[in-house]
Amino acid sequence: MSTASSNRAPENAGPGVASDSSGASGVWTVARADHEVIAYAVHDAKSVLGALIVNVDWLRGALENHPIPGADEALDDVAICCSRLNGLLREALRSASGRPVRDGVASIRVSSLASRVAEAMRRQAEAHHVALDIVEGQDAMVMGEQGALERVLGNLLDNAIRFSRFGGRVVLSHGVENGAVVITVSDEGPGVPVELQEQVFEAFQTMNGAQGGPGDHTGLGLAFCRKVVRQHGGDVRLTNRPVAGALFSITLPMA
């Protein structure tokens, strides 16, 4: 894995949208136009996703006559990803239309949440030659939106896998500390300079040092994580591990 520097370093995206001489009305015109662009893009993406699902079903049928070791498990993973992507596109379309996006608040067992997301990310970790382990502490329940919290952990694990060294280890742990649920994700990557550890949670900030290069990232994942966790009454922080690597810590109130 090549790194641009000894530490991850955020890179600013391009300049933001500026209003024209029409003032506030011009800003809202741009906003409405952006929502329409999102809606059209989601519509086209759902068409592509539909074609992908059709091909997955076709492959399942073809494999009945010509079985390939591991193919069924791979197609199961693709089907799960398609389902997750369909949900994300549905949320994006609802958001672009101005309708509220809510999964519904429910009581969630932390151990089940962690194991479910870890299993979904395991094949990605293997592809990057990174071990993915779960360390279970005291179990607990939290109140929240299942889909949103799964996306938070998925984003943090994706980030950790991409920044871990070749042959490294990512650890997802959970437990209870001082009456609150604590979930951590650690990696064995280059870490983040202390002065930049808050900046990485800003939208459109990307970091050097990831497998695949900075061009593969939007700089929105960590901003999304902090927003969702804070909406659930908690917070997410970033520190460096004592030896090497980053450590993301989520705190959530117990149900």
Total domain units: 2
User: What is the helix tally?
Assistant: 5
C-alpha end-to-end distance: 41 Å
Instruction: Give me the CATH architecture of the largest domain, please.
Output: 2-Layer Sandwich
Describe the sheet with the most strands: 5 strands, mixed
Helix content: 40-55%
Output the CATH class name of the largest domain: Alpha Beta
Annotated CATH topology of the largest domain? Heat Shock Protein 90
Lateral strand order in the biggest sheet: 3-5-6-9-8
How much of the sequence lies in strands comes to 15-25%
Mean pLDDT: 80
Question: Globular, elongated, flat, extended or rod-shaped: what is the shape?
Answer: globular
CATH homologous superfamily designation of the largest domain: Histidine kinase-like ATPase, C-terminal domain
Instruction: Please write the string of helix (H) and strand (E) elements.
Output: EHHEHEEHEEEHEE
Count of beta strands: 9
Unreliable residue runs = 1-6, 11-25, 27-31
Whole-angstrom Rg: 20 Å
Structural class determined from secondary elements: alpha+beta
Walkthrough of the structure:
- There is one protein chain.
- This protein is of the alpha+beta class and 255 residues long.
- It folds into 2 domains: 24-96; 105-253, Histidine kinase-like ATPase, C-terminal domain (Heat Shock Protein 90), CATH 3.30.565.10.
- 45% of the residues lie in helices and 20% in strands.
- The chain contains 5 helices and 9 strands.
- The protein has helices spanning 24-65, 71-96, 110-127, 146-163, 221-231, and strands at 10-12, 105-109, 131-136, 141-145, 169-177, 180-186, 205-207, 235-240, 246-253.
- The strands form 3 sheets. It has a 5-stranded mixed beta sheet, with helices on one face.
- A hairpin with a 2-residue loop joins strand 5 and strand 6 (180-186).
- Helix 1 runs antiparallel to helix 2 (71-96) and helix 4 (146-163) runs antiparallel to helix 5.
- The chain is globular.
- The protein starts with 9 loop residues before the first strand and ends with a strand.
- 26% of the residues are buried.
